[in-house]
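Morning, I've got a small favour to ask if you have a moment. You're getting the sequence in one-letter code plus the fold written as tokens. Thanks so much in advance, here it is:

===
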Amino acid sequence: MSDRTSDRDRARDLDLDDFSDLIERPHGGRRREAEERRARMELPPRALGRLDDLAEWLTAAQGRVPAEPVRSPRLVLFAGDHGVAGQGVSTRAAGSASELVRAALDGTSAEAVLARRAGVPVRVVDMALDCDPDAFPEEVTRYRVRRSSGRLDVEDTLTAEEAERAFRAGMAVADEEADRGTDLVVLGDLSVGGTTAAATLIAALCGTDASVVTGRGSGRIDDLAWMRKCAAVRDGLRRARPVLGDQLKLLAAVGGADLTAVTGFLLQCAVRRTPVILDGVVSAACALVAQRVAFRAPDWWVAGHVSGEPAQEKALDRLSLDPLLAQDVALGGGAGALLALPLVQAAAQLTAELPVADAPSAEDGAADEALDAVDAT
């Protein structure tokens, strides 16, 4: 039996309801210990601002007090083309996501430069690029589901079988990263037409109109392209609403292979207790779908930045995630999330290395109570 056939057989048993049982919240007891430990630092309360919150989040995710420094982060980029891009909804030509992938692999893209500066290795996962599979190394294309996702405004972006394979692929990538010791994932996407799919998913799940969530994308499209994008999201919404109760069918209808894989990846990262920094509107859309699958999953993610996309703002509000940065980075590719990475690393380093006063012993506590009693008389 081929690997692809065996993958299909396993995918038939995929039950998204299992994630609700498999995903636990980060360690609440450790978070309380982190809060108590922070109170014993010489720094005034809240002097570190949101770095305190980040340190407590990371402490709970790691289950260790204090949190350990982030030693093995990785930038994971899911790549794919979307058929809807042929409708003129992007500044990039339809089917040109392979150019983004090539730049990332060659080290010439913005996210590659930022990753190199931070010492973060880059992994690209081709899910539906519109190019020949042999255009990239096998390590990039081994999980590819199809050549470009379907046009979401008039047809399903994936068949049911393709959606299952893409979702399972995302889970497999999460397992591989956890097994290799990745202790923090910086998540991004390399797509053309992906923000249109993301806006459609967010509009469907938030119950809003197309015009409310449709943004200008990474290329800052002009008014005519924006109107075409609105129309595509509107038509996609008509197709998404009947399947809102089934998240895999929803992803098959309008999500495409890359967004479906990202959703599976996020959920399996939560299962494997791997914290994730979300990037822009695409990862926010997938996070929103994943929340519908398992309500505890968002506790394992932090929003890296505000991209300026209205759909992202809607999604993060629904997820109760407050972005770390507001630099209006609309580039995608994990660039904004990479900019937020040093904040998470700094929070971990500070909580691990700043001096802390010894905790009061049981005898000290009893003596203090006795002195309080004397003072009271």
The two ends are 84 Å apart (CA to CA). The first strand starts at residue 73 and ends at 81.
